[in-house]
Amino acid sequence: MTDELPTITDGENDCVCNITGGGKIKNSYTGSNKQSCVKISQSNSIVNIECFRIEGEGENSGSTEGACVDVSSAAKFRLICNRVFNKYNTAINISDCEDLFLDIVNVESGTLNNPNAGAPAMYLGAAGSIYINELKCTGYGACFQHADKVIGATINKIYTILPSGSSPSAAAPALLLDDGTGDQDLVLYFDEIKNFNTNTGDAVQITQGKASLTGRSIYSTKGKSLDLTNNIISAYIQCDEIISLTEGINIENSDEPIVIVANYIEGSDGNVGVIRSASGSNYVLRNAKIKNVSTGSNSVCIFINSGSSETDQTIEIENLILVTGNTSTGDTIRRDGNTGIVIKNLGLFVNKLINEELIILEIGVGLSNPEYNYKYSFSTDIN
Fold first, then answer.
1. Residue 360 has what DSSP assignment?
2. Taking a C-beta distance cutoff of 8 angstroms, is the pair 4, 27 a contact?
3. CA neighbor of 288 nearest in space, from 266, 256, 258
4. Using CA atoms, how far apart are residues 273 and 303, in angstroms rounded to an integer?
5. How far apart are CA 21 and CA 227, in angstroms?
6. What is the per-residue pLDDT across 236-291, written as a single tens digit (0 to 9) for each?
7. Considering the entire predicted model, what is its pTM?
8. From residue 270, how far is each of 161, 245, 297, 329, 363 by CA, in Å?
9. Helices (H) and strands (E) in the chain, counts
10. Omega prior to 370 cis, within 30 of 0
11. DSSP secondary structure letter of residue 257
């Protein structure tokens, strides 16, 4: 297709269409308005496609124009494919579909020589299920942006990469829930979610809706491992390791609890603490060793913003090991300001004593009464 038209489209009429085979669907239009390979726009259309590859050029911008697969409206859309690739921006854009199914080996946007300009590699405002082995964005865009409806997803690897020395410096998170209705709900099983951008970029950012994430590794080189803020309703995150080389986990919610279950959580002093929570936050930390690898004065494991009351945040810790890299001027738990905070404690081990005037552990009786259950255990041997 060399004209200014999509390769396959339902045009202005509802359609029921099955396309099968082992070939490629491409769009090679080189004009200023890049075109999609597959474009569906009618609300009653039912389209099933099975092919080997889908390849498109895409706009060299932050828009989603020229997405390889662009479904602005459909009753049902099915795609089984080996690879969907867009040279510059969005590979898959499904903005309205009540019955979606994707089974794809590889989805990719951008290259090292032609980085993604800021559009998401995959944008979903649909209800359904997806299975992807690898989802990759090379450049400034998010790998996966979820804006509306309920999605059940299994994605093995989610990677975002920004080449060294590239500009602008800002880059989107690898996984992003925002820019939608606020009631989106994502259930995701994964092996890795990693942001390798060399300037900035979070691994996971959730500012709207609900999310349940279960996997092995969440990792960020220059940003937060988890940024859970603004209008997030709830999140359940179960992951073997959650690592940020420069920052940590940011929590700012006021609705249902955020629950984080992990074996190991690592961060540095870029956001003051490995875990940092704002006033009004409601969260549970469970079963993790939380380590701040910084040796500076802000080597803090859990940093709790200042507040006006002892209950301005709802915090529960269960079976935690807290390790600060600076046992002199760092802290395992730090409450900013002069007002204490009540924390429900169901098992705590630290390598530096906490300030018990500001950190009020709700369960247990304290180190001064060794004949009873301790509030927490302290040892310099914890590392």
1. E
2. no
3. 266
4. 5
5. 42
6. 999 999 999 999 999 998 778 999 999 999 999 999 999 999 999 999 999 999 99
7. 0.94
8. 20, 9, 12, 16, 31
9. 0, 26
10. no
11. P
